[in-house]
Amino acid sequence: MNAGTLEQAHLSPLPAWMLSLGRLGAAMIEAAGLTAVVGAGLILALAIHLAYRWDALLPVALTILDVAGFGLLLGGLALRVASIGAILHVIQSIVYLLNGSIVPVSLYPGWLQVVARLSPTTLGVEVTRSILVQGQSLATLWSDQILAWLLVHSAAMLVVGAKLHAFGKLSADGTVFEATRIQFN
């Protein structure tokens, strides 16, 4: 029986892209509101002083592009895997734990630092932290090559995510590789 995320989306009279756009918009509004409330509370309660600077918007934008590519990658996986929900929760938890927003990546063992830097948000968190907390400039971060790596990682994630998503759409329509569809029971 096909009762996965993709199959349930087809039960609606709305087109799948409209459902996805609506879910994405709702998730973004919820996340922005929650982040603003929790962030403001922590800044006030802990007397955190951040250097609010416009140049912090560049790594934030690159991180959003990186996450968009990761989303396309996961979307391509969702087209191939019938029950994707549990897998997504595990992947999201790993990304959240490793991205440096809880514990700086520099405190991880060497092998885990390498793994963490493959996460879609790690470099963005590090660059944004360097600008807002440590007061570094974009020029300094470019010369340290961390900003360049963020740019490369974001572009690569977008390309790989788009390719995998296109492959997933191509094979999910039943014309290509139907026999390789993965099912978890």
Question: Mind sketching the topology for me?
Answer:
Elements: H1 5-9, H2 16-46, H3 57-80, H4 85-98, H5 110-117, H6 122-132, H7 138-143, H8 146-172
Describe the model.
The structure is a single chain. The chain is mostly helical and 185 residues long. The protein has two domains: 1-49; 51-180, no CATH class. The protein is built from eight helices and no strands. Helix 3 packs parallel to helix 8. The longest helix has 31 residues, at 16-46. The N and C termini lie close together (10 Å). Mean pLDDT is 82; it is low at 175-185.
Concise synopsis of the structure shown:
This protein has 185 residues and is mainly α.
Key phrases:
185 residues, mainly alpha, 8 helices, disordered C terminus
- The total of beta strands comes to 0
Order of helices and strands: HHHHHHHH
Helix content: 55-70%
Mean pLDDT over all positions: 82
Largest sheet: none
Tell me the fraction of residues in β-strands, as a range: under 5%
The first-to-last residue Cα distance is: 10 Å
State the oligomer: single chain
Radius of gyration (CA) equals 19 Å
Number of helices: 8
Shape: globular
